[in-house]
Amino acid sequence: IYNHPNIFNFSKTYYKSSNNFLNIDIEDKPEIMHWTHLIPIKSVGSINFYTIHDLVPFTHPYADRSDKIMNWNMILKIIENGDHILTVSEASRRDIIRLFNAPESQVTNLYQAVEFEEGLKNRPAHLVERDVNGLFGLEYGHYFLFYGAIEPKKNVKRLIEAYMAADCPGYPLVIVSSRSWSAEEDHALLEQLKGRELPGKKKIIQLDYMSRSQLVSVVKGARALVFPSIAEGFGLPVAEAMCLGTAVISSTHPAIQEIAGDAALLVDPYDVDALSEAISAMAEDDNLVKTLQQRGPVQAEKFSMENYKKRLKDFYKKFGF
């Protein structure tokens, strides 16, 4: 195992000053160097693969704060000098080919893997109920959940507006997030409303960082995950919630449609009324919730670790590994 402190930041600084990738020559070099992040490094004498998770900085530039010019040029150099590009959905693959005119044969979608320890995934309902009630004061099966960073593409402001307009008395909206950037309006609205008794017997609760086991309990104990993201490369919370048997409301963004299939209730993420109606339907319709709870794990199995390993192994075989 080779470990160099701060090599990612160093490589970006080197790239900005030289417009070249940082070449590294490792003793006993690997046959394949798989860079799982957009990074300007190349292993000399190895086959170099690069994973590009999404093109959100270019398809939705207002929703991302990365250095777009540097990232654009890095992707062009990867297409020119790298051996192959991997990505995590067919939607992202199409974006890479369309925006960068990359050869179709040079870009492969392997999806992502979703995995939970069996003890967490199959945690009995009475223990989940004990966790959500005892640790967080929530009623099992009687709250809506969002988790993730509060940033423009996550659409939290519209989520709050939709929840406030929905017919779901007694169902709080729980937002699990301690990170926020470039989303001043979202954060300001959340700060204004969270913790207050709101009209229609509603309440918005914000919870900060929690352990993995606690988060799994909070997801499993929710009436539904509400994840109306405007843009994703994959949509990991959607796949995770489906894997855990939780009903999902999400968006019609192409990558999420692809991951969710028919196992989630999908709405236009810009349409607050449609999102509000979806929340109301999920609060009122037990059969809808049960149907999605049953479909979710079946759909999520497509992204299991075993299926991911097989896709990755088959891909490496094409390069003689």
Summarize the entry for a quick read.
With 321 residues, this protein is of the alpha/beta class.
Note the main attributes of this structure:
44% helix; globular; four-stranded parallel β-sheet; alpha/beta; Rossmann fold; six-stranded parallel β-sheet; 321 residues
Cross-sheet strand order for the largest sheet: 9-8-7-10-11-12
- DSSP summary, beta strand count: 12
Q: Please, what is the average pLDDT?
A: 95
Structural class: alpha/beta
Indicate the CATH class of the largest domain: Alpha Beta
**CATH homologous superfamily caption of the largest domain:** Glycogen Phosphorylase B
Compute the CA-based radius of gyration: 21 Å
CATH fold-level assignment of the largest domain: Rossmann fold
Helix content: 40-55%
Cα(first) to Cα(last) distance is 20 Å
SSE string = HEEEEHHEHEHHEHEHEHEHEHEHHH
Spans where pLDDT lies below 50 across 5 or more residues: none
Q: What is the strand content?
A: 5-15%
Number of helices: 14
Write the layout of secondary structure elements.
Layout: H1 7-18, E1 22-24, E2 32-35, E3 41-43, E4 47-51, H2 56-59, H3 68-81, E5 84-87, H4 90-100, E6 107-109, H5 118-121, H6 125-136, E7 144-147, H7 156-165, E8 173-176, H8 184-193, E9 204-207, H9 212-220, E10 224-227, H10 236-243, E11 248-251, H11 254-260, E12 265-267, H12 272-284, H13 286-300, H14 305-317
Parallel strand pairs: 1-3, 2-4, 4-5, 5-6, 7-8, 7-10, 8-9, 10-11, 11-12
Helix pairs in contact: 6-9, 7-8, 7-12, 10-13
What would you note in describing this structure?
By secondary structure, the protein is of the alpha/beta class. The chain has 2 domains: 7-113 and 306-317, Glycogen Phosphorylase B (Rossmann fold); 118-301, 3-Layer(aba) Sandwich (Rossmann fold), CATH 3.40.50. 44% of the residues lie in helices and 14% in strands. It has a 6-stranded parallel sheet with strand order 9-8-7-10-11-12, sandwiched between helices. Strands 2-4-5-6 form a 4-stranded parallel sheet. A two-stranded parallel sheet has the order 1-3.
